Description:
Elements: H1 10-43, H2 50-64, H3 69-79, H4 81-90, H5 96-101, H6 104-127, H7 132-145, H8 147-157, H9 161-189, H10 193-203, H11 207-214, H12 219-234, H13 236-252, H14 270-283, H15 289-312, H16 324-347
Amino acid sequence: MLSAPRPRSAVFSTIAELAPGVLLCGAISLLAYALQWGEERLLGHGYVEALVFAILGGTVVRTLWTPGRAYAKGIVFSGKTLLEIAVMLLGASLSSAALAAAGAPLLAGVIGLVVLALALGYGVSRLLGLSPTMSVLVACGNAICGNSAIAAVASVIEADAEDIASSIAFTAILGVIVVLTLPVAAAVLQLNEVRYGALAGMTVYAVPQVLAATVPVGPVATQLGTLVKLVRVLALGPVVFGAALVRRLRANDGSAGPAPRASVWRFVPWFVVGFVALAVLRSLGGVPDAALGPIRVVTTVLTVLSMAALGLGVDLGQLRKVGARATAAVTLSILALAVMSYILVQHLPL
């Protein structure tokens, strides 16, 4: 009598589900590295990093072809989990220069910038005729961390699918545009590496986009930009908690439905905790200098993979589906954030 076939292990099943998407991101990443290598051979210098080529390559692929469901989990894994690991590893190489620059004035300035950007984003959106719910989503996405903030806040204020889709669609596309133009603008403005890192951390929407915007400039810009960005990410917890509290108070007044409970700690990402832990470990001498080289290589490779996944999430055709008022609100909000960030970094002791 034949025995029943043994079921595949959970690990093997997970690998099989992730493989198509991860391999697609890997193929785009290899092409990005090949383009960077060719650029260096032809021009003698890599003016465009593999990170940028990976974003552009993923965007082109996504615009010309929509990957099927078989690729979805691997793309999400590459764009989220691998990126989070890369961000965590950055803590191990956090330099003393970046730590010195991230003093109390900078951290206070970042917090103040988030509060001001929230108020300004909401006000601009309302002036353009967007609904209160849509205005909250645009303001949070612009001030904190793009799509992640939009999704988190939307779950608390019970935004409808159309508002969520509209606010996310153009935010994703505009985020890539900012990544590609910010280094050029910084060069024109003649910002040093420290000030540029602070500007990128204050302006760019998502953590992976901060890496894409700062790695070509230098390690200090990357470390400081990531640190500043993580401060903005941590603001998501209090903002979501506050949104839930306001909704609960309104519910008690009978003007809204029951508000879901929210915990601040639920919105403190694990990789932020890991980043801080590795930074402390590094400062205590727990990370040897010999390990920094391999860590940087792994971090760079994982980041390029995540950039390819980021590009695969950008469909330029979606621009047609975004309303003019929502587009104007997001655009004006990010421009105002960039101007405020530039003024702030110019007046901070960096």
